[in-house]
Write a structure and sequence with these properties.
Number of strands: 11
Distance between the termini: 79 Å
Strand content: 15-25%
Oligomer: single chain
Structural class: alpha+beta
Strand order of the largest sheet: 6-8-9-11-10
Number of domains: 3
CATH architecture of the largest domain: 2-Layer Sandwich
Helix content: 55-70%
CATH topology of the largest domain: Heat Shock Protein 90
Radius of gyration: 54 Å
């Protein structure tokens, strides 16, 4: 920035500095006498040779003289003309210096303004960066909390499914247990009749007939056979439940998807409301490397949704399960003729916590969990549904080649 302020009182030495005099002096020496001199306001020689008897002509820019041009040899008109010429040059130089000073001042002010703006922007950037970091930390905390709560809801949904399974299995097991217990009680009475026969052996056939032991023997065989069937039924239920839960299998293995479907059907059959049935149409399938327990959960969730859709429709219905395979992979279709869904509902069907059921009647995690399981097996799941017509879920699992 210039050292001169805009309202600075200029001196001749400032306007005619060494550089300007070096340019101007030789020309003046050629045009004017050799004793020409330029003095500032204080009579200090700036350029030339000052003669003892030199006449002085003032150089006036505004109201006061800022210097003199002096010469003894030059005539008064020549000296006056020279003064006017120098005054004109000085005014031009003054305007240039004032404009330059003004420009430099403006540039300096702009620079200072830019520096202040830059400092303000840096401060804002730091503030926003801090806010961003705080916001990011809060978002991470919120996401962690959401994931934790979502996991809790998933676990709650699993526990609810386990509770439903336990209720259904308890009902299924109680039936054979009931008649096995009844059969054993009856068989105990039959054994007591044989104990009575021992005391009446002397009566022979009459005692046998009186105690009706022919019927006792015949019915006792039937009771034992029926009890054995009941025990076999309990064993099958436990086996299906064990296969469904996949408690004693490796994390990943070759499995038949039809077996997973049968396990899921067997488990849910005991919970079917009146008027709703399950129909299987399964074709032979190649084994697939998968997580059988997860597939059991997948099919159970979809079958349960199908049963609930028929219940919501308020009419009898059937859930049909089919499977087929080709060179590309395995396709499973599960169709229900329940209440169905509209286009808006279909778009949200696989979103976590979305449900068409009443508040408290469902967590909206069944299809979301199923969707995640299919994706984890590199498959895809598609939904086709029409209101009051029904819903078909198509699941495809690719078969690796080579």
């Amino acid at each position: 920035m210039s050292d001169f302020a805009f309202d600075h009182e200029w001196h001749l030495g400032e306007l005619l500095d060494a550089t300007a005099l070096a340019r101007l002096g030789p020309a003046l020496s050629q045009l004017l006498p050799a004793d020409l001199a330029i003095l500032d306001f204080d009579e200090r020689l700036l350029w030339g040779v000052l003669a003892p008897n030199a006449r002085r002509q003032p150089l006036v820019l505004e109201l006061e003289a800022i210097g003199f041009v002096a010469s003894a040899a030059a005539s008064p008109p020549v000296l006056d003309s020279l003064a006017q010429l120098l005054t004109t040059l000085l005014r031009a130089e003054l305007r240039f210096k004032m404009a330059s000073t003004l420009h430099l001042a403006a540039v300096a002010e702009d620079f200072e303004s830019l520096k202040r703006e830059h400092a303000r922007l840096l401060e804002s950037e730091m503030r926003y960066r801090k806010l961003s970091e705080e916001l990011e930390a809060r978002v991470k905390t919120q996401v962690a909390q959401l994931e934790e709560r979502q996991q809790m809801l998933y676990e709650a949904e699993k526990l609810a499914s386990v509770g439903q399974l336990a209720a259904g299995m308890a009902h299924e097991i109680n039936n054979p247990l009931g008649f096995v217990r009844s059969n054993l009680s009856t068989f105990k009475i039959y054994l007591a009749q044989f104990s009575q026969l021992k005391a009446r052996l002397a009566e022979g056939n009459a005692a046998w007939a009186a105690l009706d032991l022919d019927f006792t023997l015949e019915d006792g065989v039937d009771l034992l056979a029926e009890s054995a069937k009941g025990i076999d039924r309990i064993a099958r239920i436990v086996s299906d439940l064990k296969g469904f839960s996949n408690v004693d299998r490796a994390t990943e293995e070759f499995a038949d998807i039809n077996t997973c479907l049968r396990h899921a059907v067997s488990v849910i059959e005991g919970q079917l409301p009146p008027g709703i049935s399950l129909k299987l149409d399964l074709l032979p399938l190649p084994n697939l490397v998968c997580l059988p327990g997860h597939l059991n959960q997948l099919f159970f969730n979809i079958l349960q949704n199908g049963v609930q859709a028929i219940q919501d429709a308020g009419r009898p219905g059937v859930v049909r399960i089919s499977s087929a395979a080709d060179d590309a992979g395995i396709t499973v279709q599960i169709h229900d003729d329940g209440i169905g869904m509209g286009a808006a509902q279909r778009e949200k069907a696989f979103q976590p916590f979305y449900t068409t059921r009443a508040v408290g009647a469902g967590a909206g995690l069944g299809l979301s969990t199923a969707h995640n399981i299919v994706l984890a097996h590199s498959g895809r799941i598609e939904i086709d549904s029409q209101p009051d017509v029904g819903t078909t879920l198509s699941i495809f699992f690719p078969i690796p080649h080579g």
